[in-house]
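wait is this the right file?? whatever heres the structure
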């Protein structure tokens, strides 16, 4: 029309979002945090089982303990192992409840559903690997086989912790697949950093197992065991942990530099500070672990620091790699101009 203009609204259409933040209650978010914290506690108790030599406290039967559902007149090692089995069973029930609740509280395409679903699959695999470790060890498997299964079990545990961490994050900051994209061009280094950190966690637990089974009287004796051809496999693999820790540290340092750039979101910089603090604390605990020859209390504290560091790193990597994606309809509307 002459003498007037027709304005086209370039704002996105008012459609129901694929994931409505108001539908996610604070109770669900608190429950997700509780499930994550409980699984960390379950992992720490697993270290107590290893450090006290209670891995065979329930004998060679699973899920029974000493041939019974509830062992009668249990000894110390039986009580420690049985408590761990009970805690793991409760963890399974909690993750099932989290999956059902998150599924009902979110809409189709919500990333929280995917993360909770992955946690459910991983906790089922955790139970399978735990049962396999018990039965294989009972049939006199070689140490190589046992170490391999133990490493698989530890890897699954860290992946489970990562899935629960992402569930917490996606419930706190609702995201859907349709509105989220991956920074494919910058995904290589964070992925390598996550894998390297995963190896550090697994190798650290293997080193702790070696310390518990074959304690050294002196620090010099411990170093001699690492390079002795006659030493058990667990001790000869102990060098992997400090080497991979250095490699993972380089990757994490790169991610921290990227996160402290001026263009980085405030949320990402806050997570970077948390990762940096956890990394420094882990380094100090690792040095103490070597100097004091890995007492049980320090192993538990060191693993707690490792879990906190892993959780913070997963959150930081997700914040760095996941970016909002503009829907196609919104992009078309934004390109519209005022019609004369």
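ok assuming it is, sequence goes like this
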């Amino acid at each position: 029309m002459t003498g007037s203009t027709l304005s086209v609204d370039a704002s996105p259409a008012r459609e129901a979002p694929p994931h409505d933040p108001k539908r996610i209650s604070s109770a669900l978010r608190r429950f997700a945090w509780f499930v994550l914290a409980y699984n960390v506690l379950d992992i720490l108790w697993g270290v107590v089982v290893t450090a006290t030599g209670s891995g065979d406290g329930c004998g060679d039967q699973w899920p029974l303990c000493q041939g019974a559902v509830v062992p009668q007149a249990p000894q110390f090692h039986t009580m420690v192992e049985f408590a761990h089995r009970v805690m793991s069973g409760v963890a399974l029930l909690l993750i099932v409840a989290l999956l059902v609740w998150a599924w009902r509280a979110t809409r189709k395409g919500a990333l929280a559903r995917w993360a909770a679903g992955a946690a459910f699959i991983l906790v089922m695999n955790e139970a399978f690997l735990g049962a396999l470790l018990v039965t294989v060890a009972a049939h006199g498997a070689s140490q190589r086989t046992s170490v391999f299964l133990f490493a698989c079990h530890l890897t699954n545990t860290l992946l489970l912790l990562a899935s629960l961490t992402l569930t917490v994050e996606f419930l706190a900051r609702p995201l859907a697949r349709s509105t989220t994209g991956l920074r494919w061009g910058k995904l290589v280094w964070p992925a390598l950093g996550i894998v390297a950190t995963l190896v550090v966690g697994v190798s650290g637990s293997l080193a702790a197992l070696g310390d518990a089974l074959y304690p050294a009287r002196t620090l010099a004796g411990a170093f001699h065991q690492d390079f002795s051809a006659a030493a058990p496999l667990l001790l000869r693999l102990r060098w992997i942990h400090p080497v991979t820790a250095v490699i993972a540290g380089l990757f994490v340092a790169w991610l921290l530099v990227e996160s402290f750039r001026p263009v980085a979101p405030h949320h990402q910089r806050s997570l970077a500070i948390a990762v940096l603090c956890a990394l420094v604390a882990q380094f100090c605990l690792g040095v103490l672990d070597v100097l004091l020859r890995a007492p049980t209390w320090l192993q538990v504290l060191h693993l707690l620091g490792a879990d906190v560091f892993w959780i913070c790193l997963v959150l930081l990597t997700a914040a760095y790699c996941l970016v909002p994606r503009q829907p196609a309809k919104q992009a078309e509307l934004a390109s519209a101009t005022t019609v004369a």
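The chain has eleven helices and two strands. so i think its the right one actually
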